[in-house]
TrEMBL record:
Keywords: Amino-acid transport, Cell membrane, Membrane, Transmembrane, Transmembrane helix, Transport. CDD domains: TM_PBP1_LivH_like (cd06582). Pfam families: BPD_transp_2. It comes from Cereibacter ovatus. This is Amino acid/amide ABC transporter membrane protein 1 (HAAT family). Belongs to the binding-protein-dependent transport system permease family. LivHM subfamily.
Length: 295
């Protein structure tokens, strides 16, 4: 049996895969947080609840209407994104001129409300969601068996992350969004609807959380608590990458997911805290984060 640092290669690669999968969800969720904070300056504590909503929408589409995984992968993020846009337009937009703390408190209250509502209707226990038939089974790579669905999760999340980064950084719409956050009055003077751009931004961030929720449904059980169990780790990822940094959210999400997976091999007792230890070290050495801009 092949060994690396005294560890069987199958165990090492298995945990590396687990780290990549977790990193995929960290990257998607922290990307949504970074988009919202970077463009709206709102710390969206409801992000975990929106992730949970995406998984539940996929589950309800299947159980109530018979709509399967592939359509749900498009429909659920759209529904969550439209819900987020409605929240932003009717309530959150009223808080932009106030201290950032008000936005944080509002989204925290929204998260508790959503989680409580889903617990009221569905209970606290998780419900299974089967992956599509095309993505069942595993591929023999020689040194390990790679579950097809988990490989799909890594590929799909990476593709979406790159797509969103290109949208924000390389398109005219992205330049409008970035300009609107720097000088909304000037942008509006050119005839651009700045409030609509801000609504789109929050809806996009919520949709990314919903997309991550659909991807997570076959991996984890669909539960009202699935978002609250993850959101603190995702905030740590965002802080390490740099608040508001799109590229930082993506790179750091995967990097910390892999670090967490490898820690389970070499020092399992520290796997639950390794991300927070890394966050503390980064904040000491570089308070703005790895990709953040110094004030």
């Amino acid at each position: 049996m092949t060994m690396i640092f005294g560890i069987p290669i199958q165990a090492l690669m298995g945990q590396l895969l687990v780290g990549l999968i977790n990193g995929s969800f960290y990257a998607l969720l922290s990307l949504g947080l970074a988009v919202i904070f970077g463009l709206l300056r709102v710390i969206n504590f409801a992000h975990g609840a929106q992730y949970m909503m995406g998984a539940f929408v996929a589950l309800l589409l299947l159980t109530q209407t018979g709509i399967g995984y592939w359509p749900a992968l498009l429909i659920a993020p759209l529904i969550v994104g439209l819900f987020g846009a409605l929240i932003e337009r009717t309530m959150l937009s009223r808080l932009y001129k106030l201290d950032h703390l008000y936005g944080l408190l509002f989204t925290f209250g929204l998260a508790l409300t959503l989680e409580g509502t889903f617990r009221w209707f569905f209970g606290s226990s998780g419900q299974p969601y089967a992956p599509p038939a095309a993505l069942t089974g595993a591929v023999n790579l020689g040194f390990m068996f790679l579950p097809i669905y988990r490989g799909w999760v890594v590929v799909a999340s990476l593709a979406v992350c790159i797509g969103v980064w290109l949208l924000i950084e390389k398109t005219k719409l992205g330049s409008y969004l970035r300009a609107a956050t720097e000088n909304p009055t000037l942008v509006q003077s050119f005839g651009i609807n700045v409030p609509l751009l801000l609504t789109f931004t929050y809806g996009l961030g919520a949709a990314l959380a919903g997309f991550a929720g659909v991807l997570a449904a076959p991996v984890y059980q669909v539960s009202p608590l699935m978002g609250s169990n993850l959101i603190i780790v995702v905030f740590a990822v965002v802080v390490v990458g740099g608040m508001g940094s799109i590229l930082g959210a993506i790179v750091t999400g995967y990097m910390l997911g892999i670090a967490e997976g490898l820690t389970k091999v070499f020092y399992p007792e520290a796997s639950n805290i390794v991300i927070f230890v890394i966050m503390a070290i980064v904040l000491i050495l570089r308070p703005a984060g790895l990709f953040g801009k110094d004030a």
